[in-house]
Amino acid sequence: MTDDEPVEIRAAGGVAWRPGARGVEVCLVHRPRYGDWSLPKGKLESGEHPLLAAVREVAEETDVRAVPQVRLSTVHYRSEGRAKAVDYWSMRAAANGGFQPDTEVDEVRWLPVDDAVRLVSYPHDAEVLGAFAALPQVTAVVALVRHGHAGKRATWSGPDTGRPLDATGWAQAHALAELVALVRPVRLLSASARRCVQTLDPAAALLDLPIEVVGDLDEPKPGQQQEECALAVAACLAELAGAGAPVAVCSQGKVIPGALERLTGRADDFTTPKGGGWLLAFSGHRLVAADRL
Q1: CA Rg, the chain, in Å?
Q2: Is 141 helix (H, G, I), strand (E, B) or coil?
């Protein structure tokens, strides 16, 4: 992009799916302005997280309330002379309020993936559908986050487990609550450090759920090995996913990367900044996708 070229348009959308009589069905929309069939998507609002935008746009265009599962590809193309990038996620349809046609979308269709690939008007939509079709069956989603900023360990005079979030940390906790809520968790679990519990406080208030403190999510205590704690966190996440229901978990920076290495079976950069996190998709106890939030 040259200096005088307009800023790239950012958009997000999803492959919303549901079980159907012939297997999985996905949702397409017809836009009368363009006379096309496409995946539901739309532009990000100012300062909006792409995942929030994706779920919002799917709901606005199809009236489907969907739970995000796996990040798919980012599509790049030009729209009305400007560069455009669209991030897509696979999403399980959780509720449908009843579609009403309007000037933006006048028809919605649920189709088997092969039929949807034949109907879409653009090759990039077909490619996104192909990536969706290649995914293993996702049975549970875990939102895994690291606690927010909590000042400096060296300037805190009490026990480290009692160190609270600072103003930046609380802002991060409130931003994370919106993302955590997207997966519709039935449980909120936290390491025992105060800053971890506080990081889930806004999500607990938003979702009206208690926070369960789980020692197996803690970073190493004096005399403990980091490897031991990482294994405990990995086992805890796999066990939670095996129950088949969405959950949200807050842990600590010294154990999250090691736990993800063990769950993915690869040595990768799983460093997680404070106030950051992951969308983890499982098939049974097996992790099939780990996408940064």
Answers
A1: 20
A2: strand
Give the pair of three-digit tokens for residue 158: 């009490």
Q: How far apart are CA 130 and CA 141, in angstroms?
A: 21
Check if the beta carbon of residue 203 is closer than 8 Å to that of residue 225. Answer: no
pLDDT tens track for 101-158: 888 899 999 999 999 999 999 999 999 999 999 999 999 999 999 999 998 877 887 8
Work out the number of other CB atoms within 10 angstroms of the CB of residue 137: 9
The answer to whether 209 and 234 have CB atoms below 8 angstroms apart is no
- The CATH classification number of 9-133 equals 3.90.79.10
> Strand 64-79 to strand 41-43: parallel, antiparallel, or no bridges (unpaired)?
unpaired
Give the pairing type, strands 9-20 and 41-43. antiparallel
Residues 265-293 as b or e (16 or more Cβ within 10 Å = b):
eeeeebebebbbbbbbbbeebebbbbbeb
Which residues sit opposite 38 in a β-bridge? 29
Superfamily of domain 140-292: Phosphoglycerate mutase-like (3.40.50.1240)
Q: Residues 26, 62: contact at Cβ < 8 Å? A: no
Inter-CA distances, 223 with 87, 217, 248, Å: 44, 16, 28
Sole residue written with tokens 């360990």: 153
CA distance 131 to 153: 44
Average pLDDT rounded to a whole number, residues 38-65: 96
C-alpha 73/C-alpha 124 separation (Å) is: 10
User: For the segment 266-275, what is each residue's pLDDT rounded down to a tens digit?
Assistant: 989 999 999 9
Query: By the 8 A CB rule, do 195 and 165 touch?
Result: yes
The SS3 assignment for 123 reads helix
In the predicted structure, residue 2 carries a pLDDT above the cut 70: no
> How would you label 92-112 residue by residue, b for 16+ Cβ within 10 Å and e otherwise?
bbeebeebeeeeebeebebbb
Q: Where are the domains of the chain?
A: 9-133, 140-292
